[in-house]
Amino acid sequence: MTRSELVAEGLSVTFPGGMRALRDVNLRVGEREIVGLVGESGSGKSTLGRVIVGLQHSYSGTLTFAGEALDPRRTTKQRGAIQMVFQDPYASLDPRMTVWQLLDELLSVHRIGSGREDRRHRCEDLMRRVHLPVAMLDSRPVGMSGGQRQRVAIARALAVEPRFLVADEPTAALDVSVQARIINLFADLREEMGLSQLFISHNLAVVRSLCDRVAVIYRGEIVEMAATDAIFEAPQHDYTRQLLAAAPDLP
Amino acid sequence: MMEQTATAAALQIDGLCVSARIGDRSYKALDSVALSVERGEARGLVGESGSGKSLTLRAVMGLLPPNLEVTGGAIRFRGQDLLADGGKLLHSIRGTGISMVFQEPAVALNPVMKVGQQIVDGVAWRRGLGRRQAKELAAELLTQVGIKDPEHWANAYPHQLSGGMRQRVMIASAIASQPEIILCDEPTTALDVTIQAQILKLFKALKTDLGAGLLYVTHDLSVVAEFCDSLTVMYAGRTVEQSDDLAALIAAPAHPYTRALLAAVPRIRGPVRRLRGLASSAPPLTEREQTVAPPMVPIGPGRQVAPFTHEDERFFSRDDEA
């Protein structure tokens, strides 16, 4: 096993009103590892993603990243290290800004790059990394396809040079044909940049084609966690078996 | 004439062309679309966004947006052309002989009308049912789509239901008139995988119980592979391949576009391999060929494919080669 990049221990989240979204969750993601997190709507998978990325401040338990404890209130550097890609690329990008403005804003806030020209170069590199034409830097999300928008969202997540990516259902709003290329992009980011990832999805086939290990979450608890092959070949928990039986597949 | 009607498919679409007016020019949105659905048959209609699959359903229902119009071909229901008499026949068939299940039940259902009432609204009026009879029918339909305690839920409003239950309600409303054809526009896309499996099972049962024909639109081949008998593939407003035997088409796709679509589908079983994405989605309307699509040619029993001249690789994405 590789060294642990992210360790979550005893994470619990209770929402106002008493709804327990997470119960004593333990999760470890190694360096250069992609872990899938699967479960149904309301299982707590997005809440776990939000805790890890620092958007959900109120929780109990501990989070350690690269050997360093993470407080609910993070430093700019800590925030930059763990980035998130959201589900809906139609909602997550400001339609009034060009791609260049969307990316440059982040570089400026995180004080990355020396001067405008250097930042422009960095943005061009980001576009190449996500397989978008560099010329698209000067266009706005309006008129782009869902796949192109999601690539822009991924470029935004990469802009601050993170070590860890949380992707929350990043292909759920996309066609299967477009989804394939986005999955390949996540695989390439691990190969090329060594980026560790938590990949949240309700689509088991997608998780199988991308992830090294899979955690199954049900009603806020991780009920099974194993290597991807083991989950698909020999599921142990009833809920995992139910999910597998429900998943559609080609003959 | 009578004989022809008796042997005609429940729904037959023949050379259907739909044009979109953009500015002062007209572009082909659907070009020579051809497919048929028998009673008791579930046909999958697959393609990417912009392939024209949902538009085909809308054309059948007479629900085209104002800037689109049918410019050629025929839509036959039990052998009768629905477009021939200026839409009168279509009007009488819509909702009774042919009904539709939409993708977003939260949008399609009336939020201020009780569930039971909206399921039977149309059919109660047509059949002249009294209030009590209508209530009984609503409860019966809710039971048929797998909702327990139907009397209770008939009095609920759509917002009180989960997404899966709302979709069941919409299906109940689609089958209320015992249609021969049910058009389904991605009805499970917004649902969880476990709920999706339940709804697919329900469609399978309805196909058998009602003897209805289903035309099921989706971008996800693995969904139609779960329960459809036959398959039609669309690309850029045209039907490019079809088979009366879905499994045969998936086992040996003939058209390069079908092969590309299949290579993009992640699998639950079998060896894990890198997926291959498609090069790009269909070109926008204004950039498509404006020539007439050549008709599909038979390549086996119940099997047709559109002529293709382009090399296979055109449809595959370059940056996925690894």
UniProtKB/TrEMBL annotation, chain A:
Residues in ABC transporter domain copies? 6-244
Carries keyword Isomerase? no
User: SMART domains from the xrefs?
Assistant: AAA
Output the CDD domains linked to this UniProt entry: ABC_NikE_OppD_transporters
Q: Please provide, alphabetically and separated by semicolons, the GO molecular function terms listed in this UniProt record.
A: ATP binding; ATP hydrolysis activity
Question: From its record, what is one biological process in GO terms?
Answer: transmembrane transport
UniProt keyword terms in alphabetical order: ATP-binding, Nucleotide-binding, Transport
Which Pfam families does its entry note? ABC_tran (PF00005)
Record's Gene3D superfamilies? P-loop containing nucleotide triphosphate hydrolases
Which InterPro entries does the record cross-reference, listed alphabetically? AAA+_ATPase, ABC_transp_ATP-bind, ABC_transporter-like_ATP-bd, ABC_transporter-like_CS, P-loop_NTPase
Q: Which family does it belong to?
A: Belongs to the ABC transporter superfamily.
Q: What is this protein called?
A: ABC transporter ATP-binding protein
Species of origin: Pseudaminobacter soli
